[in-house]
Amino acid sequence: MKMAEGHIGEELISEGQIAQRVRELGQRITSDYAGADLVLVCILKGATIFWSDLSRRIDLPLTTEFVALSSYGDRTASSGVVRLDLDVSGSIEGKDILIIEDIIDSGHTMRYLRDKLLTRNPTSLRICVLLDKPSRREVEIPLDYVGFTVPDVFVVGYGLDFAQKYRNLPYVARLTSG
Ligand code: IMP
Ligand code: MG
């Protein structure tokens, strides 16, 4: 299904709500990872704004790796076929990996990345997502940190795009067609 045009619909999560939740997640991660060798693995491009805000709320020494995965194109439903376009730059063996993602929908993207990184023997691997859309899950993925649960609607803003647009919206909105 290809949507020719999308429009910004109703605001679902405000800037203030996001900021508050990011602070809470940062505090939890800070206490959970005290003494760990923490590596944030930020998934391009959608998670960059979340990572940027969240990482500044984690009061620990840490490093960041960026990875890029594709499965979507300009469509609003997952193909289930995932490809790694950019890999982490260094070894993750013995490190505590925290994957940072914008949204989990079918779960295919996250399962692919998680399984790939687990073969490289990190000490631990957990997942932190801004948004969870559980109604559309096709594969089971345990999520360790979740910002918000969203209904089965296509959302944009705060890093999330439709056809590469709307990532710069400071809040999360519903996308409407037509
Ligand atoms: P999954 O593999 O179906 O879980 O899809 C995850 C990826 O699809 C995310 O990283 C997003 O890039 C994209 N995605 C899923 N749902 C939405 C949405 O509602 N808005 C924007 N992107 C989405
Ligand atoms: Mg994404």
Task: Explain what you see.
It is a single chain. The protein is α/β, with parallel strands linked by helices and 178 residues long. It has helices at 15-32, 48-55, 108-118, and strands at residues 6-13, 38-44, 62-70, 83-86, 96-104, 124-132, 145-149, 155-156, 172-177. A six-stranded mixed β-sheet has the order 4-3-2-5-6-7, with helices on both faces. Helix 1 packs across helix 2. The longest helix has 18 residues, at 15-32. The radius of gyration is 16 Å and the shape is globular. The model has no long low-confidence stretch (mean pLDDT 93). It binds inosinic acid and magnesium ion (MG). Magnesium ion binds at residues 43, 46, 102. Inosinic acid is lined by residues 46, 71-72, 78, 101-110, 154-156, 160.
List keywords for this structure.
alpha/beta, 178 residues, binds magnesium ion, binds inosinic acid
